[in-house]
From TrEMBL:
Annotated keywords: Stress response
Record-linked CDD domains: ACD_IbpA-B_like
Family: Belongs to the small heat shock protein (HSP20) family.
Name of the protein: Molecular chaperone IbpA
Domain SHSP: 30-142
SUPFAM superfamilies xref list: HSP20-like chaperones
């Protein structure tokens, strides 16, 4: 039997939680290790999410965050400064360029981003338009309408 790894889809989408949880349970998929840079996707509320990316060595000037057509694109490009008189013997802190894309569900918007201690936090929220939110409809009964008509007729007479 074939095993389909759906973890790349799960890791790069936000707002499709129930769908991918059901697919994971059905397929029995396990999550593979993410590629560079490592990141977390957290649910911080009923309609709030946070993406946290570990981007040590990058400053806010090296990063570009763009949202286009339900796709969040985070790009990092480090401008290499000329290091005169220094030779790096071992480079363990990765500062290579990266581009990470996340598919956003409908009505998920980016609320803000912050860079703190080498972690990039991107806050997201699902904002459903009023026209699509459920609303309660009052139920009228025929007996109440009949009483109103009888009272109106008696007052007219």
């Amino acid at each position: 039997m074939r095993h389909f790894d759906l973890s790349p889809l799960y890791r790069s989408t936000v707002g499709f939680d129930r769908l991918f949880q059901a697919i994971d349970q059905f397929a029995g998929a396990d999550n593979a290790a993410p590629a560079y840079p490592p990141y977390n996707i957290e649910r911080t509320g009923d309609n709030a999410y946070r993406i946290t990316m570990a981007i040590a060595g990058f400053s806010d000037k090296d990063l570009t965050i763009e949202v286009r057509e339900n796709t969040l694109n985070v790009k990092g490009e480090k401008a290499e400064a000329a290091e005169e008189g220094r030779a790096v013997l071992y480079r363990g802190i990765a500062s290579r360029a990266f581009e990470r894309r996340f598919q956003l569900a409908d009505y998920v918007v980016v609320k803000g981003a912050s860079l703190e201690n080498g972690l990039l936090h991107i806050d997201l929220a699902r904002e459903i338009p009023e026209a699509l939110k459920p609303r309660t409809i009052a139920i009228s009964t025929p007996a109440a309408n009949a009483r109103q008509i009888e009272t109106a007729v008696e007052q007219a007479a």
